[in-house]
Amino acid sequence: MDPRLSGLVEKLKSRRVSSTLLVVLTLVVGILIGSVVSIGVKGKEGQKSTDTATPLTVPAPQQLSSAFAQIAKQIEPSVVNINTESQIKPRRRQRLPQGHPGGGQGNDPDNPFQDFFDRFFGGDQGGAPEGSKERSLGSGVIADPKGFIVTNEHVVEKADRIRVQLKSDPPGVLHDAKVVGSDKETDLAVIKIEVSQPLPAAKFGNSEGMQVGDWVLAVGSPFGLEETVTAGIVSAKGRNIVPQRQFQSFIQTDAAINPGNSGGPLVNMAGEVIGINTAIFTQSQGYQGVGFALPSNTVVKVYNQLTSSDHKVVRGSIGVLFNAEPNPALQRVYGKGVVIAEVTPGGPAEKAGLKVGDAITAVDGHAVQNGDELVADISAQRPGSQHTLTYYRNEKEGKATVTIADRAKLFAARTGEEEGEVQEEQSQESKLGMTVRSISPDIADRLGIPAGKGVIVQDVRSGSFAEDVGLSRGDVILEINKQQVNNEDDFRKVQSQLKSGQDVVFLVRQGRGRNAGTIFLAGTLP
């Protein structure tokens, strides 16, 4: 081949290889650049996703929630639902201080310290006809496995029938209960049901150990909703919300308390009952974050007396009144101590020579700084016992020996605990089914009969033996089975001797003045 032609062919082959290599190289570079750009874009997208979508996690359950649940499970079996039935009776004027938690009927309906149980469940019946049935709901706490239950006095007051539902009971099963004893001063009552096996009793704690800010639980049946538990704290201690009620110093709490909680327990974080829920402050007829519970230390003292053989609370008194609130000016003028503002005529203080303006500074050598300490000391003494009071009069120290009196009898008019009212509760469950009262000189004058002769019928329970034989409100019973009845003691004595199946004959005076007459009413006791 011609050398020149041969060289040309070689050049062409060389250029073709170079072009091919150039094309391949260009493609490789393009692919690399594209991959880098793609990786960069994906990296940016990944980085953006990490900034805005951090995974969420669920924290471990808090111990506080577990503590509430454990306490609720512990206390709920000891909390009961109380159902009461009573017959609407003619209204009477009551002497309870305005605003008292247990005196809702006839008191100021606008008082914010209302009886929440009374207002919602049976207090003001409005136009309810006489003789109709009234049904109410409340709560209570089992204090003894034998069936003793603590509740509020106003929950069971004047109830014709009391029934209790336990947590372990099937729906509709109720146990009949009877009142063991009640105390108006503290608005507490003890009722009892018959049981075939021990009940789960609650443990009572020391309310003095509670501090403002401590967690508490309120348990009960608000609006009939059983086993309701609400939580809050101790908002304050020593709240005296009711005038002239020296034994009602409450624990204030913001745990939700509503109608039906009355009589239920306030519980600390150890599962101990440290109070009995009693009242609320409200201007809306519902919960507003201010509730009141009677301290357990007071509850225990009252419970022990109500379950004793006497079934009543006895408190000592010396028959004096004083200012509830300390007044610096008063102490500067009369001296330190408890300055007497009033002396009850014929009472222990008057008999011992104490006068208005005397400042009591000690009882049996133990100093008293204020009225609460004086009341606590004196009320704990047994009526009939003698004690020495130290006092100051005109800047001179003196001593007086006083004989303690029964406070309920001494201040009957002020506390509303006259013997007639106390016996009314007992008579409601008597075998005769009526309430009687001794005839005072004032009543005797109005009826036109001799004083001290007979007892007047104050109330007759529907369906009772008294109603069956024809006794009615206002009748005066002169004799029962030929035995004179001149006072309540005579009535109780004769009544206690009557037995089922025995014939009972009443000599009764009916009517007034010239229209009055004496008749016999008789029947056989069921």
Describe the structure using short key phrases.
6-stranded antiparallel beta barrel, Thrombin, subunit H, 3 domains, 6-stranded antiparallel barrel, 526 residues, 26 strands, Pdz3 Domain, alpha+beta
Can you characterise this structure?
It is a single chain. 27% of the residues lie in helices and 29% in strands. With 526 residues, it is α+β, with helices and mostly antiparallel strands. The protein folds into three domains: 78-313, Thrombin, subunit H (Beta Barrel); 316-410, Pdz3 Domain (Roll); 418-524, PDZ domain (Pdz3 Domain), CATH 2.30.42.10. A six-stranded antiparallel barrel has the order 1-2-3-6-5-4. A six-stranded antiparallel barrel has the order 7-8-9-12-11-10. Strands 14, 15, 16, 17, 18 and 19 form a six-stranded antiparallel sheet that branches. The N and C termini lie far apart (154 Å). Residues 91-127 and 413-429 have low confidence and may be disordered.
